[in-house]
Amino acid sequence: MCIVCVCVHLCVCAYFALTIGGRHCSPNYLLLPPLTIETDLEAANGKKVKALEIFAFALEFFKDHALQELSDQTGTKFDNADVRWVITVPAIWKQPAKQFMRHAAYKAALASPEFPEQLIIALEPEAASIYCRKLRLHQMIELSGKEAGGWRLGAKEYTRRNRQSRTFLVENVIGEIWSELEQGDRYLVVDCGGGTVDLTVHEIKLPEGHLKELYKASGGPYGSIGVDYEFEKLLCKIFGEDFIDQFKIKRPAAWVDLMIAFESRKRAAAPGRINPLNINLPFSFIDYYKKFRGHSVEHALRKSSVNFVKWSSQGMLRMNPDAMNALFKPTVDHIVQHLSDLFQKPEVSGIKFLFLVGGFAESPLLQQAVQSSLSETCRVIIPHDVGLTILKGAVLFGLDPTVIKVRRSPLTYGVGVLNRFVEGKHSAEKLLVKDGTRWCTDVFDKFIAADQSVALGETVKRSYTPAKPSQLVIVINIYCSEGDDVHFITDQGVRKCGTLRLDLTGTESPAPPVRREIQTLMQFGDTEIKAMAIDVATSKCVKAGIDFLNY
């Protein structure tokens, strides 16, 4: 079977990835509604379309393109059934976002609910970690002893190497970097992408090279799109927010051209740069601004309080290097602060290496900031093909999804149950008397606690009984909390996050027992939470599923 990886942060869905993950670079991300199958995306012109359709359309395009490329390269017709697909997502994405991607993949016909194992959801920093453990010493650069001018040269060298490194060899041996590692040594992977920054801490288990997660995945909306957001704020300050909003609506293609021009200049930003950076303004920007304001772009720049951006006679915005660096500062500061906070955790002590990966990791400004902050704590390393690290690691993960042996649960999960009422322990408002028995309601039956270690394949077992023998469907509400000190589903911070659905159709017995028991097993050690169930009386499998999107 062929392994094909689709990196969400590399496809056209990238701009929406923050919304789907529950985060956004803008301060308004907290106002976003919960993600569901019916979630709409609104275009600049106000038109809305289902997010699921957009993602499915993008995935279908990549599927068709990949299959055609495989067929052309091998001279053999590749069918979708011959491929195992791997979709990478940020590690900080919650279960609804992962389930959303699976639904989109089903809609795009990458896989189907009947054959879910054809699709694997991989976490981006985990994929990077899997690849980094196979690195040879000549495939990486250690950020130490770099002088100011060296950062710019390093960025050019990374770009050159990335262009050359389009293929790689899957090896069955552990890379030479592990010659410096011993059993139990720890390292941190920092995945800096376009939308988010994800961090994961792994411990190496020799001699097989298996990995154990030591601290639950963390991060935030600190990707390179934050720099774009700062640039947009700068444009609003110079030309007016009302104009920028209208320009994006009336001239969307020109706005994309402008952001592409900024992207190329953004990649040239470096700590030691002296020359100004020129950003080409599309003609339609210049023309529309004159119609909108009645005067020229040059006039706006002269009257603006922003004195570090000038007008070039070639039709360009000329920014001095300090101005460009200032656009990076909020995002880079967030990343460095998050890293500093993470290193204060006792679980993260003794880190030997920090691998900086992802497209944003190519930025010399980010490299210098991380190196300056953490050089005394650990060795900071960047793979040569830093932009392809996740892609390559995802392929390796597709070949062996069991390489991560232990993960950490990001949340506490459980259900609400009735327990015997204990006087003095339970509040009187929770008392329920039924058939003469005193019960305590809303008790949180904990499946797994936040930051608890969970081995791959480890299951949580619970038994449920239908309310009546003829009942064909059992629906149980699932609750979650970011903390682990939870006693009731009504506690502060506890929220309903999904439903466990047990479909009993086809498991009936000719002589039904007085008390029917459905034994349910839930797995929390994989990248997705899974459930399976069996009717104890008939030993028949019960169709079980957890829905985090429609509950």
Automatic annotation (TrEMBL):
Cited SUPFAM superfamilies: Actin-like ATPase domain (SSF53067)
Gene3D superfamilies: 3.30.420.40
Record keywords: Signal
Signal peptide: 1-21
PANTHER family registered for this protein in UniProt: ALPHA KINASE/ELONGATION FACTOR 2 KINASE, HEAT SHOCK 70 KDA PROTEIN 12A
Protein name (database record): Heat shock protein 12A
